[in-house]
């Protein structure tokens, strides 16, 4: 192979090689130390861009939209000079201006997506804290001795049941999300994860032994892990670039809101008698129902459609998510260019070969899942990011925030507070957690938006 820099819209920090046999380009990710990637269309001449758009439209049965795609590709190539593009209407110009000056003037379908993703995050928080109040009662109902200093195994079993969702999320749910996303898309994956979250918390409310509760909470962890791995991606892929950072950062805000709502539910039902702990565990089904309905009504991720070469479906999805067909056409072609570049950058570990048949690119994937896992450790910059994420997550657990989310009521009860006071103090923790997260996320959103 002869090594040379290729014109893929990459910075000079990315180095590519081209094979004389198959014409495939491969990028050396280890030499891209700072992970700098520019607009993949920026280095194309106007003639190259229009020719590529025509070929793209012909290959993907979008000929009827070719003129719109040409305008959209020109806007994507250089967003600063859209007013000078021939054929662009005043309505389209105003819509492009609104992206900068009225960022939250968006279609109903996008707001439905935002609301659904927010509900999904709230489910995450509510699931975590539902056991907070229930912990005051269920161990004694199931005959577990959790007294401090006791020689019995009750305290260990108590901790095991509470930790079960995170064991399942870490070892099953998060890993399960990739094949699910690959097969049934973002919406399908979120729907399946919501089913796990709904049935497991309802099952928890009807359990008769700690083993049954443990099994239900394992199932809950599968739903939590799969959902947490998918909803931020779904929000990012459906959002326009101008507000993408704000919407993705909103995940943490609504998780903290879910924790607050869960602690409110714990306080609301504690006086109903022997079934109080069952209602506290089962109350997490409340936000899951609108999640199941909302995700069915949302448009699928256009990026996922493009990865599956379903360009007409992707265009229809983008038309629902953008204010004008021009913006939909722009993002369709831009996402296509990004996905194509990413597939090239993945190299032989992800793509076995690329054939050109009737002007359309077909990829034979090999070892996609294993290759991506290996790249966490073999690509230097990705390895550093993996290590940083590992350290941050360990630090998050060691700071004690999850102990408060799971055991706040128990800690106050052990400090000789009454059940009502313990639940009230736990509710106060949920409120403070939500209120203090709100401005921090808002500040981060302003920087990223």
From TrEMBL:
Transmembrane region(s): 108-126, 155-176, 188-206, 247-269, 387-409
Main location (coarse class): membrane
Listed SUPFAM superfamilies: MFS general substrate transporter (SSF103473)
Subcellular compartments: Membrane
InterPro entries: MFS_dom, MFS_sugar_transport-like, MFS_trans_sf, Myo-inositol_Transporter, Sugar_transporter_CS
Keywords, ordered alphabetically: Membrane, Transmembrane, Transmembrane helix, Transport
Record domain Major facilitator superfamily (MFS) profile: where: 113-449
Molecular function GO terms recorded: transmembrane transporter activity
Membrane topology according to the record: Multi-pass membrane protein
GO cellular component term, pick one: membrane
Protein family according to the UniProt entry: Belongs to the major facilitator superfamily. Sugar transporter (TC 2.A.1.1) family.
The protein, known as: Major facilitator superfamily (MFS) profile domain-containing protein
Species per Swiss-Prot/TrEMBL record: Letharia columbiana
